[in-house]
Amino acid sequence: MFIKIENVCFSYPHIKEKALDCFSMTIEKGEVISILGPSGSGKSTVLRLLSGLEMPSQGSCTIQDRVIFDQHTFVQPEKRGIGMVFQDYALFPHMTVSENILFGLFNMKKSERKTRLKEVLELVEMTEYEKRYPHQLSGGQQQRVAIARAIAPNPSLILLDEPFSNLDSELQLKIRKDLRNILKNAGITSIFVTHDENDALAIADRIVQIRAGKIQNIGRPCDLLGAQLPKTTLLIEEESERILAGV
Ligand SMILES: Nc1ncnc2c1ncn2[C@@H]1O[C@H](COP(=O)(O)OP(=O)(O)OP(=O)(O)O)[C@@H](O)[C@H]1O
Ligand SMILES: [Mg+2]
């Protein structure tokens, strides 16, 4: 397995209840995982712990057998090789699309940076917007730039917190499909947080349902949310049964 998260517990300072209670799961390379749960259930806390913004009181996480944190180790956030896409995209307003993406590529040679910039712009279909500033882009376009910026340094994992919450519902539908394609084409292992079952259904390979800091279920969308998924399938099945029965 690619990522192993074991028994991670965490409480915010001065708060009695655990924000996360014994969170454990494994993730395969290239998998798209959705963490689904109501407000306050601990979804963002999982991402904050993985990215290194918080330190767990217990538990461990390894990425390709490299310890990211455990009882003895705490790798600094910038050394984890984890990309993050925030809810408000957090693009630098005074930088163009290209400059935003190049910002994280300071370790690469100049020629490599140019090639990588071209690749990720193509991946998110934003090549023709490279000279624009964030305020000259739609919400969906800004989101794609934020994803390109996070993907550009080739992180081993990308985390997305409620990536659709700032988009209107029509755009949400379009972006859902785009996001899955972008992540799958890039082959990047990803975890995205949402409170919307439809997001999880449309994008995830597997869904982790959490409530009050505890995992309730982990499974494929069709297994977990099957009750709503196959409404049309059920109708077709009912129809075929009626036809077969000659009713
Ligand atoms: N900085 C903080 N200090 C104290 N408690 C916090 C802090 N941040 C979050 N919490 C608490 O931890 C719990 C989990 O919060 P978290 O932000 O992970 O929830 P969430 O599932 O992301 O919710 P939402 O969908 O509203 O973003 C909540 O009960 C919340 O009140
Ligand atoms: Mg949150």
Automatic annotation (TrEMBL):
Assigned EC number: 7.6.2.9
Gene Ontology molecular function: ABC-type ferric iron transporter activity; ABC-type quaternary ammonium compound transporting activity; ATP binding; ATP hydrolysis activity
Keywords assigned by UniProt, alphabetized: ATP-binding, Cell membrane, Ion transport, Iron, Iron transport, Membrane, Nucleotide-binding, Transport
A GO cellular component annotation in the UniProt record: membrane
Reactions this protein catalyses: a quaternary ammonium(out) + ATP + H2O = a quaternary ammonium(in) + ADP + phosphate + H(+)
Class of the enzyme per the UniProt entry, highest EC level: translocase
Domain ABC transporter, chain residue ranges per copy: 3-237
Family matches, as InterPro entries: AAA+_ATPase, ABC_SmlMolc_Importer, ABC_transporter-like_ATP-bd, ABC_transporter-like_CS, ABC_transpr_FbpC, P-loop_NTPase
PROSITE patterns xref list: ABC_TRANSPORTER_1, ABC_TRANSPORTER_2
Oligomeric form and interacting partners: The complex is composed of two ATP-binding proteins (OpuCA), two transmembrane proteins (OpuCB and OpuCD) and a solute-binding protein (OpuCC).
Stated name of the protein: Carnitine transport ATP-binding protein OpuCA
Natural source organism: Lederbergia citri
